[in-house]
Write a structure and sequence with these properties.
By secondary structure, the chain is mostly helical. It contains seven helices and two strands; from the N terminus they run H-H-H-H-H-H-H-E-E. It has helices spanning 9-40, 59-62, 70-90, 95-113, 124-140, 144-157, 173-189; strands at residues 223-229, 250-256. The longest helix has 32 residues, at 9-40.
């Protein structure tokens, strides 16, 4: 059975599960890296992004997977799951492109422009890229679902905007800023690209009289016929002058609705 948006519940659930695959896989890798550090009593900070250091180039790939502690890992994992799933569910046609650009380019920009003498670790730069992409892309498109998504991001994650400003020296605000810039840029670049959410919208019907909302729009083959119906002449009882009274014609409207073909 289809819901009002045109996709079945099974199709939506399948799309949701598919959208969670890459975010969950990334989180599992992050957990594995953290557990390896704990079990081996070692630090992987050398695998972070070390700006303008040749040895720090490896961090463009590995840096987002390394975290400074359990709380750092947990906070990033929850946000990555939400934003990553939203990306692949609502923007599935361009999701993998946006994901790869944000993941690698954010770390590359950190290597180029962030303060030196430190190892930048954690996937928060990617999270900021996803968050800003989802917000600005939703505001640039004429789609009510994406607009609602942007509104929800504002309500629950509006404070993210302060993370792009210098603050705690232990926090890589540069990674946040680079991710945010990439997210906005990608939202503008992909603003006219098909997202994939169109799959969940009902197909557009030909123009016609809108009787009770969009679901009652009539097909071209449907019609309304207007006419005048003359009932049979009825003889009244004969009166003294033997006159005959004939009823007046009655105006009627005939509605002819042809069933819609799904």
């Amino acid at each position: 059975m289809s819901n009002y948006s045109g996709a079945t519940s099974k199709e939506i659930l399948k799309s949701l599960k598919t959208a969670m695959v890459l975010p969950i896989f990334t989180i599992l890798v992050m957990i594995l890296v953290y557990l390896t550090e704990i079990l081996t009593n070692s630090s992987f900070s050398a695998f972070g992004v070390i700006p303008r250091n040749v040895n720090g180039l490896i961090g463009i790939i590995t840096g987002p997977l390394v975290h400074g502690g359990f709380e750092h890992l947990l906070n990033n994992a929850v946000s990555l799951l939400l934003f990553g799933t939203a990306l692949f569910f609502f923007y599935r046609n361009i999701a993998i492109k946006a994901w790869l650009v944000i993941y690698f380019a954010s770390s590359a920009l950190v290597w180029l422009f962030a303060r030196g003498g430190a190892s930048h670790v954690g996937i928060s730069g990617v999270i900021y890229g996803l968050g800003f992409f989802l917000f600005f892309s939703g505001t640039l498109r004429k789609n009510r679902r994406l607009a609602v998504l942007s509104l929800l991001l504002t309500l629950f994650y509006g404070s993210m905007i302060w993370g792009v400003l210098p603050g705690d020296p232990k926090i890589s605000w540069e990674a946040h800023l680079m991710g945010a810039i990439l997210g906005v840029g990608l939202a503008i670049y992909f603003r006219n690209s098909a997202t994939g959410i169109e799959y969940f919208d009902p197909p557009k019907r030909p123009d016609g009289p809108d009787l009770i909302g969009d679901e009652w729009k009539m097909q071209e083959s449907e019609s309304i016929n207007f006419g005048i119906s003359y009932p049979p002449q009825e003889k009244m009882e004969e009166t003294e002058d033997q006159t005959q009274n004939i009823s007046q014609p009655r105006t009627t409207i005939h509605y002819v609705f042809k069933p819609k073909e799904d």
